[in-house]
Design a protein that fits this description.
It contains no helices and 11 strands. By secondary structure, it is an all-beta fold. Strands 2, 4, 5, 6, 9, 10 and 11 form a 7-stranded mixed beta sheet that branches. A hairpin with a 4-residue loop joins strand 7 and strand 8. The chain is globular, with a radius of gyration of 13 Å. The N and C termini lie far apart (about 40 Å). About 30% of the residues are buried.
Length: about 120
Amino acid sequence: QVQLVESGGGLVQPGGSLRVTCANSGFSLDYYTIGWFRQAPGKEHEGVLCISRSDGSTYYADSVKGRFTISRDNVKNMVYLQMNSLKPEDTGVYYCAATRRLVVSAPSQFEYWGQGTLVTVSE
């Protein structure tokens, strides 16, 4: 019933921009915290990139702070990740995940996950 579907990935040049989308169904987004994660090719997924909490607050990891922006539209049940000044090391599969928790510190605390969308940053 609960479903998260990522879209918008693709190929972008270093320094470019891309927006990926998390479409949510089966739950009311305004009660959920959403996080974005990524997994580089051949690597385990890293920690959370950014978080949009149900209370309206946000969190950004140092690696993306100032370049990435998470936003939400509770009416459309959509969460967005705007990525600017992209670097080759940003390449990977981007996942969105949801939890009812406001306080989160680990991927295991997110109970619902999408299947990911691939972002490739390369010339």
